[in-house]
Please model this.
Amino acid sequence: MEFNDLKVFHAVATHGSVSKAAIELNYVQSNVTARIKLLEKELQTPLFYRHKRGMILNPEGKRLLEQSREILSGMEELKRTFQDHSNPSGVLEIGVVETVNALPAILSSYIQKYPNVELSLKAGVTELLMQQVIDMKLDGAFVTGPIRHPFIEQVEVIQEKLVLVTKDKTFSMEEITKRPLLLYNKGCGYRDRLESWMKAEGIIPKQIMEFGTFGTIIGSVAAGIGITIFPESSISDLVDNGIVFCHELPEPYHEITTIFIHRKDSYVTSTLQCFMDEIVARTRFQQEMTPACTELR
Model:
């Protein structure tokens, strides 16, 4: 078995198509087909279900896919070890929860300093992004912390205050039992904090409606559909314009820390190290003051 055989297998598994894999790898289709057949012969098992529209991994193929990812990732990591540290390049895959207020400044500065790096961003909730860092599908991620995990190293980015967000200026906690909560999917750090507070207070929400994006949630709140929870800094402009209003949560539930995580036992490339250095440099500045919130009654 050759290393290139795994690259061919991974490409076919990803695309579900020999022709698309051939285009990606710049191979002729017959070469791709032959390599897959040789790989199956060597492993003494079929790896795909074949049908008219393409190829789908069978259980044995799925097993090989997981192992091949680790091998391919290790080879890429080995190559990056010998990278020019003064001039990082390549792809940097970063996960991010949607409301990291410091992110634009970090990205802008990093891209200007290191134009040869291709930044790839993937949005998600904390639990999902953490797992993808552990599985080495992401180089790192901005998530809600702190996190305690033997495979995770973390850098504090910013401490913020979580607030309840409503369309109305006045608000009482009893309204949670009367109006829907508009939240990210399970695994979101903000949602976990809100649910911990409600459990401690014995509050049972009327309904929880799940959304995938900040824009959808905050637009629905502004339309009067329900209530949500976000870092105060992420909705400051909307509060200034009177579109929504924020209301304080009691201690300790209102404190939230955004951290940047990466896998502890992975080699830290110059590309990733320069990114983390930029995080530290950019987050030294104090956050701009945000509007005062009304207290819960």
Summary: Residues 10 and 69 are 8 Å apart (CA to CA). Confidence is low (pLDDT under 50) at residues 286-291.
